[in-house]
Design brief:
Blueprint lengths: L1 H6 L6 E5 L2 H10 L4 E5 H4 L2 H7 L4 H19 L4 E5 L3 E3 L4 H9 L4 E5 L9 H4 L2 E9 L2 H16 L5 E2 L2 E2 L8 H4 L3 E3 L5 E3 L9 E4 L2 E4 L2 E2 L2 E3 L4 E2 L4 E3 L7 H25 L14 H13 L4 E3 L2
Parallel strand pairs: 1-2, 5-9, 10-14
Antiparallel strand pairs: 3-6, 4-14, 5-6, 7-8, 11-12, 12-13, 15-16, 16-17
Helix pairs in contact: 5-8
């Protein structure tokens, strides 16, 4: 993601929250000029530490989302911060999306899932996706963040329960609950495997377009790759254009990122998943193949 932002020509500072010593050590060694590396100890409050043992690592990361946003706003005194999921890849400047927030005179901007109807999980996973969420450092935004911090401390788990799911479903009523909320209208920000079926992807003069509008970012949710060289692009239906123009180049960039990491830490052994060989896993792969969503490829 960092290198994709660089390639857009955007001026940016990326704040990376490290939840373990390995990620902190490696990111520090890489010395990326527009990256600020943040230890968990820097922003973890006593309230966060009190709930850490009650949640999985993924759930705890979600719990920390609003706290990290508040930390960056307060500690670094920036006028605006945008939370980004790590599995985003940028193809154009994110400022094109943030300009919409400014034009709306909003304090917070959220991005809708825009599900393809057959994949619609709004009722259980939320209307909006915590993938690209922008906050100004003003009173309206701080009110939203404080409310979100309190809710995530109370409950933040990887399951649907009583109208809640992780840190994400809390966003459902923000446009009604708070002032200054803007919902991103540009669909080219937030293209993802659950909605890409709605768009026509094309390469024009070396630039990616969705329905003849420049693609800003794609969310590679569900992507994983295995130690045997197989890359799994997830369980959604993807056209050949999407696979060739988005997923194959992204897979090669991940392999290059591993090479970059190994230059500073030869013993690095993370990132790959171990192939699942149980009968249930094989049956699952067969069902995916029958649905036409096997999406597994060897990338070299």
């Amino acid at each position: 993601m960092y290198h994709s932002l660089e390639q857009t020509g955007e001026e940016f500072t990326l704040y990376a929250a490290c939840f373990d010593d390995v990620s902190y050590r490696i990111l520090s060694k890489l010395k990326l000029p527009q990256l600020i590396v943040i230890r968990l100890d820097n922003f973890e409050t006593p309230c966060l530490r009190a709930v850490r043992g009650q949640r999985t690592m993924a759930e705890y990361c979600w719990t920390c989302t609003p706290h990290l946003i508040r930390f960056v706003l307060d500690f670094y005194k920036v006028p605006q911060v945008t939370y980004l999921d790590a599995d985003l890849c940028f193809y154009d400047k994110p400022s094109l999306l943030l300009a919409e927030m400014g034009q709306a005179q909003a304090s917070v901007m959220i991005t809708p899932h825009r599900y393809t109807p057959c994949y619609d999980k709004s009722a259980t996973a939320g209307i909006y996706c915590v993938q690209f969420v922008a906050f100004n450092r003003d009173s309206r935004a701080l009110k939203v963040i404080e409310w979100w911090q309190e809710r995530c401390l109370e409950w933040c788990f990887a399951r649907f329960e009583d109208g809640k799911f992780g840190d994400q479903k809390y966003l459902d009523d923000w446009p009604r609950r708070f002032e200054g909320i803007h919902v991103l209208e540009q669909f080219e920000g937030g293209v993802a495997p659950w909605n890409v079926q709605q768009y026509r992807l094309s390469l024009q003069s070396g630039k990616l377009y969705v329905d003849n509008r420049p693609l800003v970012f794609y969310h590679f949710q569900g992507y994983c790759y295995y130690r045997d060289g197989i890359h799994d692009f997830g369980q959604y239906r993807l056209t050949q254009d999407v696979i060739d123009l988005l997923y194959r180049p992204y897979a090669r960039e991940l392999l290059r990122a591993h090479t970059e990491i190994h230059r500073v830490e030869e013993s690095f052994q993370y990132g790959w998943a171990n192939p699942k060989t149980s009968w249930r896993a094989r049956a699952g792969q067969l069902r995916r193949a029958l649905r036409g969503v096997s999406n597994q490829y060897r990338i070299v």
